[in-house]
Amino acid sequence: MNPRPNTPPSTSPSPSPSPSGAEHPDGASVRLGALVPLTRPGWAEAGRHLLAGLDLAVREVNETGGIDGRPLELLVRDTAADPERAAAAVDELAGLGATAVAGEYHSVVARAAAARADALGLPFLCSSAVLDGLTGEPTEWVARLAPAQSHGWRLYADFLLGAGRQRIAVATQPSAYWASGTRILRDHLAPLGGSVAELDANALTPEALCDTLVEHGATALLLLVGHPEPAVPIVRAVRKDRRLADVLIGAPAGQPEFAEWAEALGGDGAGIPFLRYLPEHLGPLGERVGKELRERLGEAPSFVAFEGWDTVTVLAAALRSHGTDRAAVAASWPHVAVEGTRGTIRFSRAPGIGVRQWTWAPVQIADRDPAEPGRFRILRTG
After folding, report:
1. What's the 3-state SS for the chain?
2. Do residues 108 and 86 lie in contact, with contact meaning Cβ atoms separated by under 8 Å?
3. Taken in order 107, 113, 102, 145, is the CA torsion positive or negative?
4. Which of 42, 251, 221 is nearest to 152 (CA)?
5. CA angle (47 as vertex; 46, 49 as ends), nearest 5
6. Contact, 32 vs 100, CB < 8 A?
7. How is the beta sheet containing 167-172 ordered, strand by strand?
8. What sign results for the dihedral spanned by CA atoms 172, 179, 222, 218?
9. Residue 54 CA to its chain's centroid (Å)
10. From residue 189, how far is each of 19, 154, 197 by CA, in Å?
């Protein structure tokens, strides 16, 4: 382990109240920072699901004795999909005495948070971000639950080929995450006879994008763009264009998972395959947690909510077995073996990944059933 300063800054703003229970002014609580996108331009619905999972697990930890009798306190910070804001939040949480930081959905934001946590010597367990290069160099301070983008997106590429889709077009916007996804698809598909054409969603109107799809003879269009704009207008335009009736629309980043997608698009949002990180069937623990999450959210929990619950459960196990010292928490990653909602979680070193990684969370390729858009169909597992 590379040496890092373990003494955080001594001054910072006062924490906001935790949704997980009362504040503990006597300083007896074990503080856990939580990074979540709760406002635009962040994907606020994903953030709401992530926070529901984090918060439920904190409550359950406290109902079972906390951390050696001390309550676990969640200090929530809204990243709003802003990397600079996330890095500043890590500084603030370190100054407030957080033992570790958890969460984050957006990959580019998580990368900024991971870099700052690594520099401060603050353990960071990333819940949902998948970018392979979460840190520039290997580190012992950061671990991750979600599978690396290269793992999931290669499975998605194989699914496309299996469905007879070789001429792939991607509607994309400038982003390290989208660029990485495009590169993974191209590198994986090219040796197998597939091709990937990039279409600039910022430069093309949805109608012009449809014309370009026809010119390219594309058999699939992947949405590597923001939601709801421009993803929703693009889907509507493609669905309306009779020339593209046989073109498969795909969304590997998982946009159709959330109710907001179905509300915006209705039947047009069905039949669009996406990646989600759930097993084909949840076990008893997953079923029990899923029921609790449904009650909290007022809707079916997404895989992101399960990621949140698993994150806190892993950290609580590390804190209980290795203590609340930051270096001890980071040193616990290779020894973790925790039953989560989606399987037994263990961390290892995966080739090309600089953080401790769960290899791997279960992967599904699913879509919304065109006959019943509120129901998901599992198309492939991996």
Report:
1. CCCCCCCCCCCCCCCCCCCCCCCCCCCCCEEEEEEECCCCCCCHHHHHHHHHHHHHHHHHHHHCCCECCECEEEEEEECCCCHHHHHHHHHHHHHCCCCEEEECCCHHHHHHHHHHHHHHCCCEEECCCCCCCCCCCCCCCEEECCCCHHHHHHHHHHHHHHCCCCEEEEEECCCHHHHHHHHHHHHHHHHHCCEEEEEECCCCCHHHHHHHHHHHCCCEEEEECCCCCCHHHHHHHHHHCHHHCCCEEEECCCHHHCHHHHHHHHHHHCCCCEEECCCCCCCHHHHHHHHHHHHHHCCCCCHHHHHHHHHHHHHHHHHHHHCCCHHHHHHCHHHCCEEECCEEECEECCCCCCCEEECCCCCEEEEEECCEEEEEEEEEEC
2. no
3. positive
4. 251
5. 65
6. yes
7. 195-200, 167-172, 220-224, 248-250
8. positive
9. 13
10. 45, 9, 12
User: Residue 166: what pLDDT?
Assistant: 97
What's at 71, amino acid-wise? Answer: P
Q: In angstroms, rounded to a whole number, what is the distance separating the alpha carbons of residues 272 and 367? A: 5
Beta-bridge mates of residue 348: 357
Beta pairing partners, 195 = 167
Structural Rg of the chain based on CA atoms: 21
The pTM for the full model equals 0.92
- The model's pLDDT over 43-81, given as tens digits with 9 standing for 90+, comes to 999 999 999 999 999 999 999 999 999 999 999 999 999
> Residue 77 and residue 61: Cα distance in Å, rounded?
20
Q: Which residues contact 335 (CB under 8 A, 6 or more apart)?
A: 321, 322
Q: Which two tokens stand for residue 202?
A: 């910022």
264: amino acid identity, one letter: A
Say how far apart CA 173 and CA 176 lie, in whole Å.
9
- Which residues share a beta bridge with 265? none
pLDDT digits (tens, 9 = 90+) for 144-155: 999 999 999 999
State phi, psi for 224 to the nearest 5 degrees.
-105, 65
